[in-house]
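Consortium newsletter contribution from the modelling node. Members have asked for a concrete example of what our holo predictions look like. Here is one, prepared for the adenosine-5'-triphosphate complex that several groups have been discussing at recent meetings.
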Amino acid sequence: MNFALLAEYGPALGQGLLNTIFLSVVTLAIATPIGAAIALIRETRIPWIAIPAAIYVNIFRLLPALLVLFFSFYALPQFGLRLSPMTAAVLGLSIVGAAYMSEDIRGGLAAVDQGQYRAAKALGLSYPHIIRRIIIPQAIPLIIPPYVTRAIIMVKATSLASLVAVGDLTGEAVRATSITYEPFMFLIMAGALYLLLSGALALFQMWAEERVARARRPRTSLTVKAAQV
Amino acid sequence: MKMPAPRTSPQAMVEVVNLHKTYGPLTALDGVDLAVEAGQVIAIVGASGSGKSTLLRCINFLDPPDSGDVWVDGHRMGFIEGGSGMRRASDREIRRHRADIGMVFQHFNLFPHFTVLQNIIEAPMAVRGFSRADAVATARELLASVGLAGKEEAFPTELSGGQQQRVAIARALAMKPRVMLFDEPTSALDPELVDEVLRTMRNLAEKGMTMLVVTHEMSFAEDVADTLVYFDKGKIVEAGKPSDVLRNPSQPRTQAFLQRLLRRTL
Ligand SMILES: Nc1ncnc2c1ncn2[C@@H]1O[C@H](COP(=O)(O)OP(=O)(O)OP(=O)(O)O)[C@@H](O)[C@H]1O
Ligand SMILES: [Mg+2]
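And here is the predicted structure:
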């Protein structure tokens, strides 16, 4: 380890880490509600809103994310929309991320037993009430694992932003490497920091799943036994 | 707006007139006529796929029929009588009328994340606008009447199938329905749990509830039902006093089917 070099480029790497965290948080904060809204819209199966939502999802799910980022950074200025590298990256990553997330969320919503809709409808409950009170609470435990997995994938995908001139963790590590010819040290550093970030999400997933499992477990095994007698 | 077809039993609690329903190329209901007087119990039997569930779903407009009319307690489902005749009901209006019709399913379909009490009070509060106190009081009475007093705070998974189905009946009754629809309410139960649910339904019938019951429990049909209806390929091919239909069906097909059912239950 060359500690002099590390000290010299440490601040740049730190700034890169902050940019990566910023990108991740903002992208997730934008993509999650949009993805959830798209999932709910598609679940209504009302054609004039569900079909455009399905088209959106499938376009951005099937395109390379890098192409979308390049588009928002290089091509939008042609239409008079000049975005800063960070804004272009957030836009591109959120658009793609929301498309993916909507699929994860929709999968959870669709996995709730159809009989629940039927029973709730038969009681005269309205569709929004059914979604809010009956379906979503049952879908959340099903959504958490794929959702957090997706969030981890999205955090890692923020490294694409380095290719549209954002000084994120990957960008700064690559820059330091190309100046110093010390790839090992800087890439290891960047890798360790990514592990910390996505590791935090993985821990969150474990905590959330545990919490959900506890909430759904019958409180006393005694009543269960009594019921089976 | 198509005018309603003429009714033959305008005083009936439920009247179904020339009901048709198709799913793509498949005809599920092929011209069903049925009248149920207030307080009557109708047992509906028929082979799998003959349209029994579809009929129940069309009656409460869970699945609107393609054509034909459903009248419940003098009201034409899916329509509103205005000054200038009938108009199609809005979604909200359909829901209000649907709430007058209780429905019980083969697989109970209790809300697993709610306690028994919450299962029962959710719709009365949200749809009928009952206060929490009123809804809870009604729920406790109903739970007692189905033999489940004290189970308010249990979760559905903590109950046996028979107990869950009785909660589902209480949940439907909490809406104070005019009519109850039962779709094979005991088919998913272990044999030893069937009787407790049938007993609950018999009590309900004795209290004067109008009931349409899809069932293969022939003893229940014979003892409790006023009329037994036999369904085949989306049509009612036989209807009459249960003992008559069971002993002397007029159609050979009915005979064969009922023979099999009777042999299974006896
Ligand atoms: N939502 C649906 N979409 C497509 N086809 C359907 C739908 N519901 C019912 N069907 C079809 O309509 C026909 C009548 O079905 P239905 O469920 O009413 O029969 P059933 O008499 O209740 O049968 P079972 O005894 O098996 O419950 C069947 O052929 C079924 O496949
Ligand atoms: Mg059925």
